[in-house]
Amino acid sequence: MSGEPLAGLPACELREWRRDGSRWVAYCHAALADLGDTDAQGERVWQRCGTCPVPGALEDRWVCLHLRPTVLAGQAWDPRLPCRWFFKLRLGDQPRSLGEQCHGCPYWFPRPRFSVIPRHDDEVAAIQLAERYPERVRARFSFGSRPPVRLPWWRRVLRPARGARPPSEATATGESPAP
């Protein structure tokens, strides 16, 4: 946005300035939270946005369409750069640089402007939730557990009853096949 209220901050496409009466309020789409206003909390906006690696990562030539910069806002300001497809593989340890995941990825696609990406905030909220409660996500999306495959009806009908041997096995052991 041109003419940002706090001049000198690094430009970031995920920071949005909103007018609230006579003051400007900064909203971060990576944290899904208000950063503060320019009057009373201008110092807090400077502390968080001035040291955040997200603007630099978004300027990199390897930035991808699937990148979802996320800030875990709580006691500490913790910016991370997870991928929307692979964030479940590294729960609790999301990458903090593009080099940890994007370089060499077969699904890489150039990132368009932020306004073109659909449901960005919903995906960031899902990633933040997964980072806050990783045990729930691991239990739900574990790779080793899959529901049992249900056979089609015609295979269930043709399958012999439990305990009965197929005719080929019965003749091989010397038994007479069941009528």
Q: Which percent bin holds the helix content? A: 25-40%
Structural category: alpha+beta
Radius of gyration: 27 Å
| Shape summary | elongated
| DSSP, total strands | 5
Unreliable spans are none
Widest beta sheet: strand line-up: 1-2-3
- Please give the largest β-sheet: 3 strands, antiparallel
Name the helix and strand elements from N-terminus to C-terminus, one letter apiece. Answer: EEEHHEEHHHH
What are the SSEs and their pairings?
Layout: E1 15-20, E2 23-28, E3 33-37, H1 42-50, H2 54-59, E4 70-73, E5 77-80, H3 120-132, H4 134-140, H5 153-158, H6 167-172
Antiparallel strand pairs: 1-2, 2-3, 4-5
Helix pairs in contact: 3-4
Descriptive account of the structure:
By secondary structure, this protein is of the alpha+beta class. The chain has a domain of 121 residues. Helices cover 26% and strands 14% of the residues. The strands form two sheets. Strands 1-2-3 form a three-stranded antiparallel sheet. Helix 3 packs across helix 4. The longest helix has 13 residues. The radius of gyration is 27 Å and the shape is elongated.
